[in-house]
Here is the input.
Amino acid sequence: MAKARIKVPKSVKKGEVFQVKTLISHKMETGLRKNKKTGKMIPRMIINKFVCNYGGKDVFVSDWQAGIAANPYMAFFVKAGDSGPMNFTWTDDDGNITKKTVNIKVSG
Amino acid sequence: MSEKFMTQKYRRRDVLAMAGTGVVAVAGIGLFPGSAQAKHFPRHIPVAQAIKEKIGDKPTKSGRITIELPQIAENGNTVPMGFEVDSPMTESDYVKAVHIFADQNPNPDVATYRFTPQSGKAKISTRMRLLKTQNVIAIAEMSYGTPYMAKTPVKVTHGGCGG
Amino acid sequence: MRIKTQGILFAAAVAVGLSGFAGFASAQMKYKAGDRRSGYTYATKETQAIQDDDLGNPAFLWLDEGEVLWNKVDGKAGKSCATCHGVESAMLSDVATRYPAYNPDLGKLQSLEQRINRERKEMMGAKPYKWESKQMLSLTIYMKNQSRGKPMNVSIDGPVVPFFAAGKAFYEKKRGQLDMSCANCHNDNAGNMIRANLLTEGQSNGFPTYRLKWQKPGSIHRRFRGCNKQVRAKPYAYGSDEYVNLELYVAWKGRGLSVETPAIRN
Here is the structure.
């Protein structure tokens, strides 16, 4: 189960466009490396999808290939709607899912 | 999923490679994988093909996109990259997706970022991998009209006394 | 297809803890002291920015784990590190500035890893962590990060005099097929290129460091081993006397520089 870190502002005003920063631990194995001992290629194993869901909608989605660096850092923006949970989902090539939720506090 | 599509492409490419072009060793990457069934990816797809797979035959125009990348990458395996697309991000006029390509990577398709009007800004920061000196290309598909394209070169060096 | 869901409560707690985070003010840091310079000053601004971002610095993934380990009960005595040392320990606040340190009970110089394992054995009845294991890296990053911003200040007096002398001798001795000493690169050629890499002074103030080359953090002993292999000398073991003495000398070389753990370097 991958470890993830998330940063959002402590509170935002309604309609404010705020930055969300995320970081998750993952090797992002490219599938292009060789195991030096066995001589076999190490299969690709990466996180290939990232979803940010807020206010009942997927507000930001991204598809990743092996050209995304290890321990992927993803910062993006969201417009503040109502207070409530912001759900994050990372999915890897095997379909394993890491989920995290933070609370968005909206004033005004 | 694109993985199956890639595997088919690889098979054809493998035959072509054996037919006469020989094996090209890419520094630090290793040789051709043996089995087309495994989760392996082709050695190199032309970036034009990767772009076509994302946006078809649409022409692009320049402008609206600002890409942030170092001139020289400290290490090609972790290159901070950001972009911003100039757009009001309203229901009727927003950035639908931005596709990022690295034209000399084994797989030039790096990532696709999909925005909504709730994004507020079509702006992201991340870190990418660059195998060697090459261009990073961003193509922004808008909610209507022609896609925009921007290109930035990045120098990547190899070899030293890294330890 | 497996779905592993983190408890919302835990995730929310982590988020609350993090959302109060300011980025670490790099203005507080001393990257230069006298004629000595931190590896930070040789890095590109993009690399510096990764280090300075407390959310985005990938080594913080290990730091978070280190905090968990600090508070985790482990071993036959039913204690955690925090049981004796407290959750917010005053001891931690300068640990990175003064290690390797002399342990009078043992009559030996010890690196932090060795001290941790000794305490785990004697006080906790817990198994030692392997030197380069995820647990040891996580715990040492967490502990040393508590000293961030404080000046490196190892003692080289009294009982550690012979260890310091041994470390200095190691640093200056040519070794390996390439017949080079640490000093040849890090004293004589800091700021010059060796093929495509820029040589630094080889300071230790950011260790354990997340090296872009490793795509994970590593200890200074790992770095010593790498350097020795690069001049085609046989590397010493993790935790060897040679490397602990060398670590003391290198820490003294960086005196006055701020602790940066966890640093980002190439």
User: Anything to note?
Assistant: Residues 1-39 of chain B have pLDDT under 50 and may be disordered. The radius of gyration of chain B is 18 Å.
